[in-house]
User: What shape does this take?
Amino acid sequence: MTDGTTPYVRPDVAAFLAFLNAQEGPKMEEMPPEAGREMMRVMGQMADVPRGAIAKVEDRTIPGPAGEIPIRIYDNHPDREPGPVMVFYHGGGWVIGDLDTHDPYCAEAARQLDMPVIAVDYRLAPEHPFPAAPEDCEAATRWVADNIPCTGLVLSGDSAGGNLTIATALALRDAPASKPVVAIHPIYPAVTTHQDWQSYRDFKDGYLLTEGGMTWFGDHYAADPADRRASPIDFDAAGLPPTLLVTAGLDPLRDQGRAYAGKLIAAGVPTTYREAAGTIHGYICLAQGIPSAKDDIRGNLTVLKAIVAEATAWAEDAWQMPQGGIDPGEEAEDAAIRELGEETGVHAGLVDIIARSKTEHFYDLPDHLMGKMWGGKYRGQRQSWFLMRFMGEDSDVDIATRHQEFRAWRWAELDELERLIVPFKRQLYRAIVDEFRPLV
Assistant: This one.
């Protein structure tokens, strides 16, 4: 390390790196892309575990913005009732990697999470430079929401795939898919194009992911540093779903991952950060070469499963109709309101509550429902939508200012919430302005 200290390295990681660094022959950055892709496949065959038993693995293609996108569906209980599904974007610097390089990990995720996992084989650079990869990932994720029976989406990916996880989540935050994103799990993600990080200087050589390799990836991908999909750390993170972000202690990307976790927390996003101390970038695909990676994978997925369970349980509770006070016979009057909800991405259950409830003021809604509307877990474009709905156009209160105040509250603070909401008349039948964008 540049400060003269010696980093902690696990014994199995040290043995793997000693073997890897003793290999002769050209480095990946000295090869053409196709040779680099084959190198990654061979490493996976040597250093990763077999796929293992799983009830269903299906390869198919789906429509994309520039042709067919291959996907692979994993499900250990294919006869299950609809629930959350994971959409996974593989790593490999946007240049290498495919469905096979991450096949064992995706199968393990499907088993441990007990949910379907759908891996996306997006277009690679340099044949298809930026922004082909994020365009494919967004399109594939929207297709999953529309065509795979599910109640919500969990987005995940490693390295370049971690970047694509965040980019896709931001896209779906601003223009929601037909199913909500309930959680995201970026694994040692790339969140910026610049390399001014201490971990980059400390681990840029000898720890699998090298400075030469990262330059090779960046040159082929040719991302625009000013684009949110390339550098999400430079853009607003408010309104993203609950996040489990993990890094590796010996990874050049470690510090930018730490920084992005901090950004998420500062933006009010429910965030869990885990760092796998003493191991390297790419460990989710090295479970045989680095046996301790199995524990890292298991730990990450255990935490993610709990996050998804909490998020989906809360959503089901929040969307549940309150008992009493609902007149089921007002279909014609309420149809327009529900259509507005669909246009703005508000969940149909809440729109139905609003459309059918005839209370005079917003603060008369049930306390448990109002609290969850405005609580720490309920943010982003739907929260902003409610501000526009319940603060009249004639209000002299600045919407953006009030939005910032609301974002900081927790649902338990109902007394203060009611005090501030009382002056705002509930205007159920006011149309949303055409150019409205979420204030996040």
